[in-house]
Amino acid sequence: MHFRYAKSPSLYAVELLNEPFSPSVTLETLNKYYKAGYEAVRKHSSTAYVVLSNRLGPADPRELFPLANGFQRSVIDVHYYNLFNDMFYNMTVQQNIDFIYNNRSSELTYVTTSNGPLTFVGKFIQIHYVYFAVTLFYSKAILVTFLI
User: Fold this and answer.
1) pLDDT tens digit string along 87-111?
2) What is the mean pLDDT of residues 21-48?
3) Could you tell me if 80 and 125 are in contact, meaning their C-beta atoms sit under 8 angstroms apart?
4) What pairs with residue 124 in β-bridges?
5) Contact at 8 Å (CB) between 75 and 49?
6) Where would I find the H helices in 75-121?
């Protein structure tokens, strides 16, 4: 963060890294990077939120909780992609909607805790692969992602 932005009332948050990939980026390496990044931001701003992006790939969505709990004004950024998983290719629109309600909502509940760090969904990509799907149903699937 450049010092000229540090005191700006418009500076609300700084995300230190977007979508580190597991297992290429180890949790140990990521924790060291985030700790150094957090300290660098705090040198210039005590009010900006520091956003820590969860690792994509095989990783526990709560793996950053111990680190983030030690940081004031930190947020864990979670991303959900349906388009990179083959299981969605042959699903109907309704099956996609059901998956969001039944699976994504429980995943969000898992990372939303009353005594843990703040979390937010930075990306939620819902792509449906049924060609010529009725626009109304496709729109309904997108709307559901914002309702959970």
Assistant:
1) 777 777 788 778 878 887 888 888 8
2) 95
3) yes
4) 80
5) yes
6) 93-99, 105-111
- 25, 30, 31, 36: which is closest to 1 by C-alpha? 36
Helices (H), the chain: 3-6, 27-44, 65-69, 93-99, 105-111, 135-147
What strands, in cross-sheet order, belong to the sheet with 118-125? 13-15, 49-53, 74-81, 118-125
DSSP 8-state code for residue 18: S
What would the two tokens of residue 116 be? 């843990």
Q: Would you mind telling me the total number of residues written for the chain in this entry? A: 148
CATH topology of domain 3-147: TIM Barrel (3.20.20)
With beta carbons less than 8 A apart as the criterion, state whether 65 and 29 touch: no
Cβ-based neighbours of 28, under 8 Å, separated by 6 or more: none
Fill in the amino acid letter for 34. Y
